[in-house]
Design a protein that fits this description.
Helix content is 29%, strand content 16%. It has 171 residues and is of the alpha/beta class. It has a single domain, classed as Rossmann fold (3-Layer(aba) Sandwich). It has a 6-stranded parallel sheet, with helices on both faces.
Length: 171
Amino acid sequence: MTPGTLVLLNAPKETSAAWGGLPAALRSSGLDVLAPDVPDETGPRYIACASLLVGASAPAPPLVLVARGAAGPLLPGVALAQRAAHRPIGGYVFVDADLPRPLRHDHTAPENDVPMPPDWPEAPCGYLRTHPDRETHDKALREAHLRGWPTTEQEPTTTIAQALRELIGSL
């Protein structure tokens, strides 16, 4: 797929600096990239702040939402806000990220859990693991593969930008 704008969402409690040189590398290959600095928020507040920042930048559709770490479970909420503002979503990419889970309806759910829209995912999803020596995201990678999503592990000879572009191209 060819995205209009790639939206790189940092994990809560991080800044967009966590992406390092990735935004610049993607822009140099001709992609429109937005890496908003979402304030130090979590859960629904993160979704609201991220959505306002994305909307304020007037991104070109379709959006490809790219999440890192703990921003992964928040992608359905961010997408719902973008779709409500008539900004279509073309795809989702999880980069070493946690996957969204349905909201539990008991009192053991963490306070930052957010509801998942019933139609999620309404666009193709993919998973990129950039640290093959880390086992922390093995479960998420396996689960993404079992869901039939394209999954990629960054090779030592490729950059994250190259691996991400190839994965987005396969969506």
